[in-house]
Amino acid sequence: MLKQILSKLPRKSFKSDTDESTRGDSARSSDSPRPVGKSQRPHGGSSSAAKRASSSAVFPASMVSGFEPLVPFKDVPNAEKMNLFVSKLSLCCVTFDFSDPSKSIADKDVKRKTLVELVDFVACGTMRFSEPAILALCRMCAFNLFRVFPPNYRTSGGGENDDDEPMFDPAWPHLQLVYELLLKFISSSCLDAKVAKKYIDHSFIARLLELFDSEDPRERDCLKAILHRIYGKFMVHRPYIRKTINNIFYRFVFETEKHSGIGELLEIFGSVISGFALPLKEEHKIFLWRVLVPLHKPKSIGVYFQQLSYCVMQFIEKEPKLASIVIRGLLKYWPATNSQKEVMFLGELEEILEVINMVEFQRIMVPLFWRIGCCINSLHFQVAERALFLWNNDHIVNLIAHNRSVILPIIFPALDRNVQSHWNPAVVNLTHNMRKMFLEMDEKLFISCYNHFKEEEAILISAAEKREEAWKQLEHAASLRPVIGNTAVLVS
Amino acid sequence: MFFNGKRVAPPKPLFESVQRFQRVSQSISSQSRFGELRLRAIDIAARHEEKKMSLVEEPLYPIAVLIDELKNDDIQLRLNSIRKLSTIARALGEERTRRELIPFLGENNDDDDEVLLAMAEELGVFVPFVGGVEHAHVLLPPLETLCTVEETCVRDKAGESLCRIGSQMRESDLVEYFIPLVKRLAAGEWFTARVSACGLFHIAYPSAPEMSKTELRSIYNLLCQDDMPMVRRSAASNLGKFAATVEYTHLKADTIFKHGSDQDSVRLLAVEGCAALGKLLEPQDCVTHILPVIVNFSQDKSWRVRYMVANQLYELCEAVGPEPTRTELVPAYVRLLRDNEAEVRIAAAGKVTKFCRILNPDLSIQHILPCVKELSTDSSQHVRSALASVIMGMAPVLGKDATIEQLLPIFLSLLKDEFPDVRLNIISKLDQVNQVIGIDLLSQSLLPAIVELAEDRHWRVRLAIIEYIPLLASQLGVGFFDDKLGALCMQWLQDKVHSIREAAANNLKRLAEEFGPEWAMQHIIPQILQPMTEIAQNRDCYCHNCYGKTLCHSTLRNLQRDCPMVVLYCNLAMPWPGSDDNGTGITYDARVRYPFQSKLSSVLFSVKSFFSSSNVLEMISNSHYLYRMTILHSISLLAPVMGPEITCSKLLPVVITASKDRVPNIKFNVAKVLESIFPIVDQSVVEKTIRPSLVELSEDPDVDVRFFSNQALQAIDHVMMSS
């Protein structure tokens, strides 16, 4: 019976196998003697017309024929089912050119039906997966899923057509089934993690993570669900998964600023963080400081801001002492010219302040309110408004009231400037209300601040003059002392 | 703190205060800049006291000025002071710069990235200020710190500065200071240090003693296998530079390629390294070590890697010599030309000529030409366009027969391509084309292509073709040009897009240069003048006062900005005898002696009348404020040309009305316009009309309107006072 099944397998040329090994491709080909064809690119191919495909996969012309469906699962005895499972998986290792919808329609349908059968088989979960079955499934996923994305013309083409549709892989109908199969497989109770970890290994995970850069949100969604399960099931791989995702984040923040899947990866981290045991390990705190906080820097933060701020809040809820560290980081990466980002930062700030305790608050209030003062003065009314809305929050007002002797002197100049000259009436109004609030809170302090402010203003002007004078003198002194280094003089 | 051991007892109280400042700042390091600020204020106050009591010959404290500014909240001030570091250093003198300034900078590394970036840059050119190369090593510690910060730009700049300093340092200093620095960075805990280290090896290595050399090589090897992909990428991209300094015998052993990375971003950079290495190796070593790697890369599963190979393949061919090229690289190249990723084909197609040049004609015809034929009908326009830009270079390689037989059909089909860029690329290489296929054949196929491009709906395409017209003219000759292209050149003058009109005017000037003034008088001038004089005749002419008088250059220049035809006339008229080139102006005699000048004056005349026509002024009531702004702008340009009379009667009322506009941008532009036109009108008008309007604007709620109106009022006052 089994022989029969195997004989029905499409026989692929061994030639492509040898091609493959010379390339040193990391695909797991070494341990499989089965004549299963490689669907990867045979570059020495001859027909050029077929190569005009816009997708990035290449299909050898030889393998389109002789593709036959295997018997359904219900027709074989239980003992044979696992073998049939492997055979069906091997059948699905073949990939098709979807850029031309008229090509090999029948074969595509055979594969689709087989995939559906496989999904059903895994879903009903009656039998423990044998080791060859696990291997075959990983191989099949590798052949179908692990591909290099085509170039993204939108980002290279000068941003003129930014609102183009994202690039969708034409092979999605099959990809979707493969993803579903992988998800069901990993979450299946019939999968022994101890055996499977040999095949769902570092390389497999790394390549799975690379796929998060897909432009297709559906694909990223599937990946997210799968990675979640892998993280849950394979304890040994957890550190590796975290490390690899971190590398993706580092590359995004420090090198490219381009990645489609940051939001999804952060979402995974959101639940990972909530699972951290207390007290937090040093490693995890470093992650907060080295990864999550710098993620506030890229200009595309809007895409993943929600997930990012969720992760940050998870940390602070676990360990309130981290609040001041995070705020310090926010202040470091505070946007200078991007008003939308500034509004987001203010939002996150409010969330943190909502839960911060007094000690932490006092630790950062001086630089924090200096920055808030700047925001209150922002010419972008949304920024100014958002900053002033902080005073609508009872907890924050309470914190401020306790520390008013420090905070009011810092933001007083900002309030005064707004009342004098802000162009937006709503902002002026809000500022007035706030002044009134402070006045009612502590009249004496308010008046002393006012007086101090007037004095300070005069001092500032004279300080600026003094500074200019000092530089003039310095320059004079410098001109009297020519440089006598024995290299060429480099004067800026 | 690095330098504590080296500090000599400081002679000046200044140093104590600096030290105290450092102590203070350490004790409060957990506090903010603001805490420091307050303490710094106390510190400075104390120093001022000291200053009064001590030292008359030391009038100021350069470091104090710097510290003062570096602690300021205003980032602009902090940046300014860093930008003037050299001034401070010179005022301090070399010795104290080394002893005080540099250590201070080393500790001031917790600032905004922008400030750190400026610091990294300044330190790179600081060698003269610390006393020349023998002291250059004191600059290393602060830069080492900067090499480890988070921000990539700062790290890159610091690395760059370190290389610059290192390349000037004495060999013994390099051994004593620079090499340990590289090792420290390479062993850095955080990846930023290790990334920076990779870029410094090529400076450190040459002067290292044998033992260190071995160590440095093994460290670099470790970096190539680092745990973090960021470090591996940096190691791969710096490999070429480093390899160039490594002795030949070690080269083969130390290569990153043996570690092949599963990250395509790393492999990508390794390709570049391969090309660099290939140039360093002897051909036969190149064949044994590099060639297999490159052939492998050319079949990589990532198109980015293959793209890189396509870009670098040519250089490798040079490195390995003709025989291996034929057997190994030609097949690889052919594969790349037929790659299924367009991006790769683009890169490969762009190199087709260069590649053919190092092959012999037979091979080219046999292997490359069929691919070229395929590429000329490629589905991607970018591929065709890349091919079109280089294909003509193949002609000399292939020889005349093969060119006519094989290349010409490809060439002609590209010239009829539906995508304008492709056609343009062919036309831009026209001189080469002409030599190969001769003018008759060319003109038959060329003309339709040009006509179509001339009417393309993308103005950039039209612009590009205009720029090639003079080249065409010189290739094709006057006769052909008059027949076919003359009309096109005139048509462009009336294009909707300003840049096209401008280019068209310049084009006519270049044509006139090409064919000579006689030709221009005959063919260009009458055709242009007609529409212009029509305009002049059909409009009410307000302005007569310029005719026969003197026009200044600036007026001309203003008009040139708005009207391409004026540009043309000016270009044609200026070099001719009779134009007054002494800077005062052009004389317009009633008895005009030179035709160009007479044309010029009539054109100017008609242009003025065109602008001042009531139609234009009506646009001031257009609902879109940008149009109203444009009119304000033209009024400010026109007023000096029109003279006081018309300005007062026609233009000024418009401006005054605009001052009541509801958009602040209009209002402050009114203020600007008024400021520019008050000198040309009578004083009574200024007092009666302009000043009241400005006074009103100076009380506007908008801050900018107030600013510009006050500025205008001040200007008026200033002129009144001086007169």
TrEMBL record, chain A:
GO cellular component: cytoplasm; protein phosphatase type 2A complex
InterPro entries in the record: ARM-like, ARM-type_fold, PP2A_B56
Annotated region described as Disordered, given as residue ranges: 1-51
Pfam families, A to Z: B56
Single annotated GO MF: protein phosphatase regulator activity
Gene3D superfamilies to which the protein is assigned, alphabetical: Leucine-rich Repeat Variant (1.25.10.10)
Primary site of residence: cytoplasm
Localization (cell): Cytoplasm
Keywords attached to this entry: Cytoplasm
Basic and acidic residues compositional bias, start-end: 14-28
KW Protease (keyword) present: no
Gene Ontology annotations of biological process type: signal transduction
Secretion signal, residue range per the UniProt entry: none
Task performed by this protein: The B regulatory subunit might modulate substrate selectivity and catalytic activity, and also might direct the localization of the catalytic enzyme to a particular subcellular compartment.
Stored PANTHER family: SERINE/THREONINE PROTEIN PHOSPHATASE 2A PP2A REGULATORY SUBUNIT B, SERINE_THREONINE PROTEIN PHOSPHATASE 2A REGULATORY SUBUNIT
Entry protein name: Serine/threonine protein phosphatase 2A regulatory subunit
Organism phylogeny: Eukaryota, Viridiplantae, Streptophyta, Embryophyta, Tracheophyta
TrEMBL record, chain B:
Repeat among keywords: yes
Mapped HEAT repeat ranges: 62-100, 290-328, 329-367, 368-406, 407-445, 446-484, 485-523, 651-689, 690-723
Domain of life: Eukaryota
Entry keyword set: Repeat
GO molecular function: protein phosphatase regulator activity
Domain Phosphatase PP2A regulatory subunit A/Splicing factor 3B subunit 1-like HEAT repeat: 324-399
Transmembrane intervals: none
Keyword Transferase included in the entry's annotation: no
InterPro entries from the UniProt entry: ARM-like, ARM-type_fold, HEAT, HEAT_type_2, PP2A/SF3B1-like_HEAT, PP2A_Regulatory_Subunit_A
Gene3D superfamilies, alphabetized: Leucine-rich Repeat Variant
Pfam families the UniProt entry points to: HEAT (PF02985), PPP2R1A-like_HEAT (PF22646)
One Gene Ontology cellular component annotation held by this UniProt entry: nucleus
The family this protein is said to belong to: Belongs to the phosphatase 2A regulatory subunit A family.
PANTHER family referenced in this protein's UniProt entry, alphabetically: SERINE/THREONINE-PROTEIN PHOSPHATASE PP2A 65 KDA REGULATORY SUBUNIT (PTHR10648), SERINE_THREONINE-PROTEIN PHOSPHATASE 2A 65 KDA REGULATORY SUBUNIT A BETA ISOFORM-RELATED (PTHR10648:SF36)
Protein name, entry field: Phosphatase PP2A regulatory subunit A/Splicing factor 3B subunit 1-like HEAT repeat domain-containing protein
